[in-house]
Amino acid sequence: MEENENVVGLLSDIKGLLSHTKKVMNVEDLAAYTGLSKSKIYKLTQLKLIPMGNNAHIRQKFFDKDTIDNWLLGEPDVSDETLEHQFNQQLLKNRRK
Fold this sequence. Notes:
Layout: H1 2-19, E1 24-25, H2 27-34, H3 38-46, E2 63-64, H4 65-73, H5 80-96
Antiparallel strand pairs: 1-2
């Protein structure tokens, strides 16, 4: 029985590694890849602080892995405090319109 659990664990690990080879990722893939929460990714997309696909005919968000890698290496400030501040600034800006 323990051997079956080991095989299942190994298969799960392999599946996780293979998911990181995708060229185009959705929010769930991106969360697993970067370690960011889905909530934080949605905030980043709303504030347009994260590079993403811009196909107007698709509601779901998609992200190019190479572009995300470059963005991550650019050391973006994605701290909760920074995002909250920028989110509030955008709300104030939208209220004034």
